[in-house]
Design goal:
Blueprint lengths: L32 E2 L8 H14 L7 H14 L3 E5 L2 H12 L4 E5 L5 H7 L4 E5 L10 H7 L4 E7 L8 H11 L2 E5 L7 E2 L2 E2 L6 E5 L12 E5 L2 H10 L21 H12 L1 H19 L5 E3 L15 E5 L1 H4 L3 H10 L2 E2 L14 H4 L8 H9 E4 L7 H16 L1 H9 L1
Parallel strand pairs: 1-13, 3-4, 3-5, 5-6, 6-9
Antiparallel strand pairs: 2-10, 7-8, 9-10, 11-12, 12-14
Helix pairs in contact: 1-8, 2-8, 3-4, 3-7, 9-14
Length: about 400
């Protein structure tokens, strides 16, 4: 069996179609190829920082590395405040509470479920609005349709390392008197109209989960230019302490540890290299998919002053052209040890508790429902090579060319 890092075996002249595991061949990859496999930064720099933590014996509670990470992010994002947290979900929950959101808040259903859960956890109703069919972001026109007298805010989500329509969402907020928050979990290193994502709305929330371009093992942060909001969130992440033995507010333990900050700083130093590798992989997929029918790579043109971190390789499957559904292609790839993902299937509105509370939500989310059934996310990052991308493309092309055989084999 070939090594997963070796070049693909040359195909016969005029063909690059490999044998398929679903039809009885050995898997193309000896080891699983994951979506979101962590990018590991420079080990020597990371271990030196961890040694300094041990020497200081300052492991948490707003240590010097947490402070350094916050200051570094402030400079990179062009904001006055960054409040580091233990993870992105806690950061989102604290930002929601600090903003005083209540009643109903408009969000996309096509997002990671934490976006909705962060509201529901605080007894705020997420109201799901539909998305744009090409970029998969909240559609501003659909936001307007979902506003009611109980609406207090909108949470826009920057998906796939691309900015959503910040200007349009902020304009709706100003006109309708709504608070605006952005879930920027995918968006570190991205820009909107030449401005780093981070300064939109009242605040923007980042994730530094292990799967992200910048990871802190586990971590998150809120970026804002609002001094009072930042002060409130700092209280809330530390039990409401405003000094030694001086509790002045209700809070929880949302602090980032020093070892997470060490990883975050080291990972942040490698961001440009990670993005360059992601972009090279994206271009490799674009070339490899150019002549395969039914695979639409999400490569909508960015604005002239926008930048992506290319963290995700997203493909929409047109079953009419492929002869196979998205789920059937996922099964084909899984048999080859390529663990492609169905982000964000089936949509938050079809997960609990939302499907029981809002059983008719799908009627106003036709684009969300279609996209959730078609999207396939493929492996990328520093652990993926061009040869592996070519092999993945060959698998997909072979499956499409033998769609009838593949469908029959999967039905057994």
């Amino acid at each position: 069996m070939p090594s997963p890092n070796s070049s693909p075996t040359p195909a016969p002249t005029g063909s690059r179609r490999p044998p398929l595991a679903v039809l009885g061949a050995p898997p193309a990859f000896a080891e699983p190829l994951h979506v979101g496999r962590p990018n590991i930064p420079d080990r020597a720099r990371l271990l030196a920082r961890i040694e300094s933590i041990l020497d200081r014996r300052w492991l948490t509670n707003d240590g010097p590395l947490v402070q350094e990470l916050e200051q570094t992010l402030c400079r990179r994002l062009g904001v006055r405040h960054v409040v580091a947290m233990c993870n992105g979900t806690t950061a989102l929950e604290i930002a929601i509470r600090a903003l005083g959101l209540t009643g109903e808040v408009i969000v996309p259903s096509f997002t990671f479920v934490a976006t909705a859960h962060a509201l529901m956890w605080q007894e705020i109703t997420p109201v799901f609005a539909d998305i744009e069919p090409r970029r998969h972001h909240l559609d501003p026109a659909q936001i307007e349709r979902m506003i009611t007298p109980r609406t207090t805010g909108i949470i826009g989500v920057h998906l796939w390392g691309r900015p959503c329509d910040v200007a349009a969402i902020e304009e709706i907020g100003r006109r309708r008197g709504l608070k605006i928050l952005f879930d920027a979990a995918h968006a570190i290193g991205c820009t909107d109209r030449g401005r780093p994502i981070g300064s939109g709305g009242a605040a923007e929330v980042f994730s530094f989960h292990a799967t992200k371009c910048v990871n802190a093992f586990e971590g998150g942060a809120v970026a804002t230019n609002d001094d009072r909001l930042a002060d409130k969130m700092r209280l809330m992440r530390n039990f409401g302490f405003a000094g030694y033995d001086n509790v002045v507010y209700v809070g929880i333990n949302g602090k980032m540890s020093e070892v997470s900050a060490a990883m975050g700083l080291t990972s942040l130093e490698d961001l440009e290299q990670v993005v360059a590798r992601n972009q090279a992989n994206f271009e490799a997929y674009r070339r490899a998919f150019a002549e395969i029918p039914g695979l639409r790579l999400l490569d909508e043109p960015l604005g002239p002053d926008d930048a992506s971190n290319y963290q995700y390789v997203v493909v929409q499957i047109d079953e009419r052209a492929t002869g196979l559904t998205r789920d059937e292609l996922v099964a084909v790839l899984k048999a080859e040890n390529v663990l492609a993902r169905r982000y964000f299937y089936p949509g938050c509105h079809r997960m609990e508790p939302y499907r029981s509370r809002f059983p008719q939500a799908g009627l106003v989310l036709p684009v969300t429902e279609r996209v959730a059934a078609e999207v396939l996310v493929l492996p990328t990052g520093t652990g993926v090579s061009g040869a592996e991308i070519d092999r993945i493309a060959g698998i997909l092309q072979a499956a499409i060319e033998r769609a009838g055989e593949v469908r029959a084999a999967l039905a057994l």
